[in-house]
Amino acid sequence: LPYLFTRPFVVYCIPTRRSGETVRALVYNHPSRCSRLETGRKRPLHIDIHGGGFIGGIPEYDTPFCQKVAETTCAVVVSVTYRFAPRYPFPAAHDDIEDALEWLLENAEREFEADPKVLTISGFSAGGNLALGVTLGNKTSRGKNAVKGVVTFYSPVDLRLPPQNKRKPPGFPSIDPLWFLFPLFDAYAGPSRIKNIGNPRLHPTLISSQDWASDALFIIPTMDILLYEQLELVERLQSETAEERKKETSKSDNMIRIEKLVLEGQWHGWIELPSWLIDGSDRRKAFKAACDFLIETHQKHGFESSHSHAL
Questions:
Q1: Mean pLDDT across the chain
Q2: What is the pTM of this model?
């Protein structure tokens, strides 16, 4: 409803591997809506993936974040949707995001005046899993380093266990308030869990630091059944990359960054709630951390973010 009469984005339909079928996307900083950068400069390209437990959601959910990224980093932001379970279990959503990524790598420069060589990605909840999956899948024609940085918000990184079996943090209710939705939340990974028990595309926690190709920032609330799997992944990757950095001091500037922002007392999905329902300071803190991380990633790959560059 907030975007019924005025929209900060342009709606696009991105083709997929399924003949004649597309995924819907919202494009922020579309060339028709913003001034060009100085001669010869292309904007970075950023992909955002909304959450919804793999069973629903729309890209409009992430408009406040996408607008912030577009305004702060100068990037062209493409917010993408995908197919939902239970009708479409794994790997349908992963395939859709992979197809969108492939299309953007090939067409973003022509369509949006964006530089696919400076590509970052973000995702909320299930969208974070999809962001990591496409980053780690490395099946794009541009190779495994296509995605330079990834930001996730309360992302499931280990779907080998169904939701009801995940470890609860201290202070979490003994009965999960969303217990009645657990069967639906498991409708994406559950049907092929055994077959894909060792698949890092679905379970990013299985990837090693040697195969991790992108800088990453994990934004993690503590009142979440996904707390421990995220912390364990981050701490393991930080430990492994620290060891690698000791061995390759001459290449330290090019080493992968693994960072986290832990927000005490916040719940899964809190950041997407209306401002009148939450203390907005933590949301502002999370958005700033994400944008600062993306700007640093852009700079690392040759783009200096400054609104003074806009003509």
A1: 90
A2: 0.93
